[in-house]
Hints:
GO molecular function: DNA binding; DNA-binding transcription factor activity
Order of helices and strands: HHHH
CATH topology of the domain at 5-62: Arc Repressor Mutant, subunit A
Protein name: HTH myb-type domain-containing protein
CATH class of the domain at 5-62: Mainly Alpha
Pfam families: Myb_DNA-binding
Distance between the termini: 58 Å
Subcellular location: Nucleus
CATH architecture of the domain at 5-62: Orthogonal Bundle
Keywords: DNA-binding, Nucleus, Transcription, Transcription regulation
Number of strands: 0
Number of helices: 4
Amino acid sequence: MVWTPELHHQFVEAVAHLGEKGAMPKAIVQLMNVDGLTRENVASHLQKYRLYLKRTSTTATATPPPPPPLPASRSAFLSSPARSSDVKHSRSCAKDGRTAFS
């Protein structure tokens, strides 16, 4: 069975019409009314479709929103060169002055 874009669209409309609880393979087959379409074809496609929906919904919620833009005063501070008096050595510096980022 090849799921053409038109057939898939009809499938999605049937699933939406039946709702989350009523979207069972037998009901979808009856609603779509396509010659040669079996309950097994629809069951397999429904399983893949539900996995796709689950994957896309978790991806959308798992991605954190981008950080807000910096205020003008902060961005000016970040773009100005650092002076040697502004730089403080931390414990992450090696004895020879190299940092972990060097």
